[in-house]
C-alpha cells in the first residue's frame, strides 16, 4: 500500500470502520443483486490502473466476517488519475440499474501540506459490453455517471474518537441494452475508502391478485415506467367476461393499478388465493356465484366440485329449471270429475289435483277414445272431434268436446300435467269417465273413474 506521507493511520481507521459498519440491513425484497462486494469474502480482484493507485484491503464486519474493500490516498502529488474497474456484470433482463456506494472520505483540511492537490470527490463511470473485455482500461470508452461527493468527511480528530463518517450514495444507470457492463471509479487525488459497492435492479416479484398469477416482472427503463402485465388465472378459475386480469409493475418494483379479475369456475369457490371444490351436498352452478350452496329439496350429490345436484328417485328437474330450484314430480290426478251430454257434445268439469308436485305450472290435457260395444275395444278419436277451448295446455278446469258420433261409446281421460310430467317414465295419473252419446240428448250421469297407469 502506498499512502504518501499519510501513514498507517488511514489504514487503521479503515480497519476499525469496517469493524463497526452495520451490514445487517435487510435486502429489499424488490431487489435482484448483481454485485455486492460485501458478500464476497475472497479477493475481488478488480482492475486498478495504475497499480499503485487503488488498493484492495481486508476488513471485518460487526460479525467478525472478513470483507474486502478498496482505498486510495494519493494526495501528496498533483495530477492524479487513478482508475478502479469492477469485474464484468451480466445484467440479465434489467434495463435500469441501481448502484449503491458506501464510502468514507478524508477532509483535505485535516491533511497538512496538501493544499491545492487534495480532492474531496471521485467520479463514477460505466461501460456497456456484450462480452468481457481485456484488463486494459480505455478511459474514452467509459460514460460518466456522476461526480460523487461526501456528505460527511472525517478528520484527524475523528480517527482518535472512532467516529464513523460513512457516506451512502445511490445512482441509476439506464436504459441499458447490452448483455452486461463494467463500473469504474476515478480518483483525482482524494483520500477515499470504498467500503462497499452494491449493484442491483428492481423487479415486481410474482404474486397472486384477484385469483390471477402475475409472474416476476423486471421494471421498466424509465423512472415513470409502468409495465403492463397480463395475469394467468389460478387452477379452476376463469377470466371474468370482458375483464381480463392485468396489473402494472412500477419502476420501484411495486404492483399497481389492478384491472379485471378471475373468478372460480362452476363447482368451485374462492378460499384465499385459490379455488376449492364445493363439498358433498353442495354445488355452485355458475362462476358468477360467490359461494357454494346446499343442494335444494329432493336433490343430492355425493361428489366434490359439483355444478348441480341430482334429483332423488321420482323427482325431476325441467330443462328450463335452474339448478337452484328444488326437484319436483308430476301432479296427482284431477279431482271431482263431472260431465254433461247434449246430443253429440260433452262438457267436462273437474277440480285441481290434491298434489301439484311442488310446481305452479299445472295445466290439463284431454285424451279421447271411442270404444266398440262388444267386446270393448277403444281407438283414439279422429281429428273431426273438436275441443273448446283446446285439447291440451288448458289453464281452466273445464272443456267442451263437440262433433262426437251419435249412439257411440267414448272414454275421456283428463290428466293434470306440469313441467316435469313428460320426464316421468313410470306413471300417468289421470281421471277417466266413460259415456254413451244419444240422439235424444238425454243427460246420463255415471260414476267417475280415477286410474293409475304404470
From TrEMBL:
Residues 330-440 form the Fibronectin type-III domain. It is an enzyme of class 2 (transferase). It comes from the Eukaryota. It is a single-pass type I membrane protein. PROSITE patterns: EPH_LBD (PS51550), FN3 (PS50853), RECEPTOR_TYR_KIN_V_1 (PS00790). Its EC number is 2.7.10.1. GO terms for cellular component: dendrite; plasma membrane. Residues 1-26 form the signal peptide. Pfam families: Ephrin_CRD (PF25599), Ephrin_lbd (PF01404), Ephrin_rec_like (PF07699), fn3 (PF00041). One of its GO terms (molecular function) is ATP binding. It catalyses: L-tyrosyl-[protein] + ATP = O-phospho-L-tyrosyl-[protein] + ADP + H(+). This is receptor protein-tyrosine kinase. It comes from Carassius auratus (Goldfish). The lineage of its organism: Eukaryota, Metazoa, Chordata, Craniata, Vertebrata. The gene is LOC113080951.
